[in-house]
Each structure stands twice: as structure tokens, then as C-alpha cells.
Amino acid sequence: MLKIFKSPVFRRLLLVILALAVAGYSTLELKGYLEKNRPHEQVLVARNDIMPYAVVTANDLGYANLPAGSKLPGSIQDPKQVVGKKATATIFKNEQILPQKLAESPLSLNPDEREVGVPTDLVQAVGMTVRPGNNVDVYWLPEEKKGLPTKDQPGIQQAQLIAENAVVVDVINKNNASVFSAAPAPQEERNRSNGGNAPAVVVLKVKNEEVQRIVTSVGNGTIYLSKRR
Q1: pTM score, two decimals?
Q2: What is the DSSP secondary structure assignment for residue 164, as one 8-state letter?
């Protein structure tokens, strides 16, 4: 056995093994050093999976700190160019945003359109079944005409149609957060709430000429929504 250890061939083999081990360790150390110290850049990515036909919101986007050179050619880096558009294919979590996976959404504003907030409650928001992208008609019931017939007002008053085919952009709850992205309220809070009468603001996209009519109606009566197919 001692002869084997003293053999020149064994010694050369041992030296080769030690050299390979040192080289492997040095390579791993160098790789770790380069990864830690190489330049990085901020790249726009999806924070979560965005499913096809979903409208992209600011909450869906974020920046990842990636090694320099990781940015895909043609990828979008300005969130303003993404928010409000519709995904045409699944955009996976941490995936960079490519324009071919996006399309114009009905929520984007044209020059002749504006967004307007309409105070309501969850029942008046079509039983809380409206979603971003839905089309609704807006009805107004004047305050002085609200309610059942009286001796001074013998007939049932008709609500007035003040805007047609408005597009639902969002529904904001009393905590000033979107009901579609806000975390569920604790059970105790839900128990204290008044169910369908919880206050909300429906954000609508409407024509310029309808804004004045809607704003005036909001301050002088009650607004109801009727959802279209």
C-alpha cells in the first residue's frame, strides 16, 4: 500500500485532483463575486399573473433589479404605456412586458371622453355585479321626486336617463381603494357594515357633453346604474 502512495503516477494523479478542486472552487467564487458586483438595471415586470382579456392596472406592475443587459429588446419600461390596456395572452409573474401581448382597452380615454365619479352604494351598482369594462346606462331620480306617490304627487315619478353606454372603469370603496384589488375586510368589520348599503364610488368613462349633466344630477338626487350586456 505504501508503494502506491509513493508511486509517481499516484502523486501526479493527486496533484491533478487537487488542481481541479482548486480551479472549481475558484470558479464558483469568481462567479459569485461577478453576480454580486456586476451592474444592475431596473426592468418593468408583472407583479402577478395577468390573464388574457384582463385590463392591466398599476397594481399589476413593478420593477425588478436585474443584471445589466437583461432587458428584452422592445420591452415596455414606462407603466403609463401599459396601465389601462388589455392583455391578449397570459403575462406571467416577473415576466417583462412586451407590446405584442397588449391591446387597446375600452377603458382608455379618447379626446372626447372624461372619467367621472358617481357616488352610489353596492345595491345601486347593479347589486355589485359591475366590473371594469362593463357598459351601463346612468339614471337620475331627482331628490324632490324620490319615493312613493303622495297627495301632492299622485303619480310614480320616472327616473331620467342622463347618460347611455358609459363604461365602468372602477368601483372605489369607502377606504378609497378599488373593490377589485382591496383585501377582504375582517369578519368583525363585515359584521358591522350595512351589507348592500356600503358606500362606493363608481368611476365611469363618459362623453364630454355628459359630464355636466351627471355632476349636476349627483348633487340633486340619486344615481342608479343599469348594466348592458
Answers
A1: 0.52
A2: E
